[in-house]
Write a structure and sequence with these properties.
The chain is an alpha+beta fold. It contains five helices and four strands, in the order H-H-E-E-E-H-E-H-H. The two termini are about 15 Å apart.
Length: about 120
């Protein structure tokens, strides 16, 4: 089955490159677990442009975006923005999983297990 190609704004490429160079500590920790096809053999990219947004991590074969949220994502304005953004991503066929910074820093094993279980459930493996 061929996956759909999701367009993105070319202007976001420069910002995505900059974000890759300035990843937060939780993002770095999670990237160490996602890179090199460590999750069931699937390739993830970091700071990936999709449509008008940049997601923290993305697997195009699974159409899975993983977002790392700090405390500011609990603010009403940010929560509303995240909700609207997620609705748009989902309308493009992208599923979004969110993790809080603290979950990654203090319990990375559970985070990785949740991602791995999502992948297994989605792929039937």
């Amino acid at each position: 089955m061929q996956r759909p190609i999701i367009p993105y704004r070319a202007a976001l490429k420069k910002t995505a490159r900059m974000l890759r160079k300035s990843m937060s500590y939780p993002e770095i920790l999670l990237w160490k677990e996602l890179k090199s096809r460590q999750i069931e053999g699937y390739q993830f990219n970091r700071q990936r442009p999709i449509d008008h947004y940049i997601v923290d991590f993305y697997c195009k074969d699974l159409q899975l975006a993983i977002e790392v949220d700090g405390d500011d994502h609990q603010l009403p304005r940010t929560r509303e923005h995240d909700f609207n953004r997620q609705e748009i991503l989902e309308s493009l066929g992208v599923e979004v999983i969110r993790f809080h910074n603290n979950d990654i820093v203090y319990d990375i094993e559970t985070v990785v297990d949740k991602i791995r279980n999502w992948v297994k459930e989605k792929t039937g493996t």
